[in-house]
Design a protein that fits this description.
- It is a single chain.
- The protein has a domain at 9-67.
- 43% of the residues lie in helices and 0% in strands.
- The protein has helices spanning 9-34, 49-67.
- Helix 1 (9-34) runs antiparallel to helix 2.
- It is elongated.
- The model has no long low-confidence stretch (mean pLDDT 80).
- Bound molecules: zinc ion.
Length: 104
Amino acid sequence: MHYASGMTYLAYHKIKFILLLSIEFVLITLHLALAKPHPGDTWAVTNEWHFWLGLIFGYYVIYYMYTLACSECGYKQIWRSNNCMDWRMPGAKCWHCRHSLEKN
Ligand SMILES: [Zn+2]
């Protein structure tokens, strides 16, 4: 994988992760702003493009969070346990085995 000169793996993943969360936040806000009220059933399936864009991008963010793992021990770097609320920013080294994440 190529990084811009001087940019470390840590900076790359931190910026990408923050960017992904920001885009998802904008998409959700966009959907809430554009969504027409559904009288009656609020869980009705919609075909509004902003809903599906937010949903699909949300799946990608979750996929990214789930697949960022240490190449040495395989421990997840963002989600660290089965608790979905237990997640941290990725670090320069693996939080579990201290293997450097710089080389990919
Ligand atoms: Zn590790």
